[in-house]
Amino acid sequence: MIIHRIVKLGIAAALMLSAYGLPLWAEDENAAQSTAQITTQKTEQKTDQNTDSGIDHIQAQAEQLLKSNFSNFQFYSIKPSAVGGLYEIDTGGNIVYYSPDASVLIFGEMYNDRGENLSQVAVAAAVAERLKDLDLSVALEFGPKGAPLLTEYSNPLCGWCQRLHGWFDNEGRALAVRRQIIFAVGHSRQSQDLAEHILCSDDPERAFADVYNRKIPGQLLRCEDGNARVQQHIQITQAAGVSSTPTLFADGERIRGFDQVKIREYLLAASSHETPTGEDQ
Questions:
Q1: Range of the domain at 224
Q2: In this structure, how many other beta carbons lie within 10 angstroms of the beta carbon of residue 237?
Q3: Rounded (10°) CA dihedral 248, 180, 242, 75
Q4: Which of 1, 53, 164, 226 could serve as a FRET partner for 25 with CA atoms 20 to 30 Å apart?
Q5: What is the DSSP letter of 145?
Q6: Is 236 within 8 Å of 131 (Cβ atoms)?
Q7: Which of 49-53, 119-123, 256-260 has the lowest mean pLDDT?
Q8: Crossing angle, helix 224-240 and helix 118-131, to 10 degrees?
Q9: At 44, is the pLDDT very low, low, confident or very high (cuts 50, 70, 90)?
Q10: Residue with more model confidence, 30 or 205
Q11: Of 17-21, 134-138, 151-155, which one has max mean pLDDT?
Q12: Which residues pair with 202 in a beta bridge?
């Protein structure tokens, strides 16, 4: 009975194909090749025309599903990951992966067979994209020009930020480094006041050292430019997805916290490719 049904289905399918003018089999080898070539050409043309729009549509569907199934989940962007079927979600400080088919979020890092951390690469690219239109010249910088650049998101009242500065003044003193300071002080009025004081000083590097060594003057400096720069620092911090201090970026790679080993490794490796000029600021 089952065999008879299969045969009937096969005959019905064949009749449908015939009705639409499609051959049930090739009359000869040349005819088969011609049919295959025409079909391939049509498919390629259609693919070329619709690939971009198709991908955009699928990505939009995935984003809609994400917003629908995880309505409280906040993110900046969504795009395909290196693994088919998984999407890369930029949450600001991290990359999270999403499977629309399974309707699950996956937290963790992705590595390729060369040991490259694809999640870290994605974070760096996402941060660079968000920062590209912001003016980083408002940052406080000191150290030899041409030395390896280390971007520090810092808070004057953060104990680990103070220890990081102390380390640069002592154990890390021999390391060539150009420090780029962004004050991550959006949550604290007191921290904002200290950051403004530093930026308003005639000698910001000295004022920075005093504040981070807990030598805070009784009267803090105030100035319009310093206040405006503090607000820009807060905006940059948000765009970078930084939520804790100290957070450092070494050539795009995020270093969380005061990690002496990673900082030293980066500066030593980078110094072998760069020659500091010795000029400051």
A1: 134-271
A2: 21
A3: -110
A4: 1
A5: T
A6: yes
A7: 49-53
A8: 140
A9: very low
A10: 205
A11: 151-155
A12: none
Residues in contact with 99: Cβ distance below 8 Å, sequence separation at least 6, in sequence order = 85, 86, 87, 106
Q: Report the run of H or E that residue 126 belongs to, with start and end.
A: helix 118-131
Q: How confident is the model at residue 58 (pLDDT cuts 50, 70, 90)?
A: confident
Q: Which has the closest alpha carbon to 178: 211, 213, 205, 160? A: 205
- Partners of residue 232 on adjacent β-strands: none
Token pair in block for residue 239: 């765009």
Q: What is the overall mean pLDDT for the chain? A: 82
Does the pLDDT value for residue 80 go beyond 80?
yes
Contacts 24+ apart (CB under 8 A), 210-214: 211/156, 212/156, 212/161, 212/162, 212/165, 212/166, 213/162, 213/165, 213/166, 214/162
Residue 28 has pLDDT above 70, yes or no: no
Q: Exposed (0-12), middle (13-18) or buried (19+): which is 79, by Cβ within 10 Å? A: middle
**Residue at a domain's end among 91, 110, 130:** 130
| 279 three-class SS | coil
* Residue 116 shares a structural domain with residue 139: no
Considering the domain architecture, whether residues 125 and 162 belong to the same structural domain is answered as no
Do 106 and 98 contact (CB within 8 A), yes or no?
A: yes
Backbone angles phi, psi at 277, to 5 degrees: -85, -20
- Burial of residue 65 (CB within 10 Å: 0-12, 13-18, 19+) is middle
The strand pairing partners of 103, in sequence order, are none
Q: How many residues can be counted in the chain?
A: 281
Structural tokens at position 13:
């399918």
pLDDT at residue number 278: 52
In a domain, 59, yes or no: no
**How many structural domains compose the chain?**
3
Note whether 157 and 228 are same-domain residues. Answer: yes
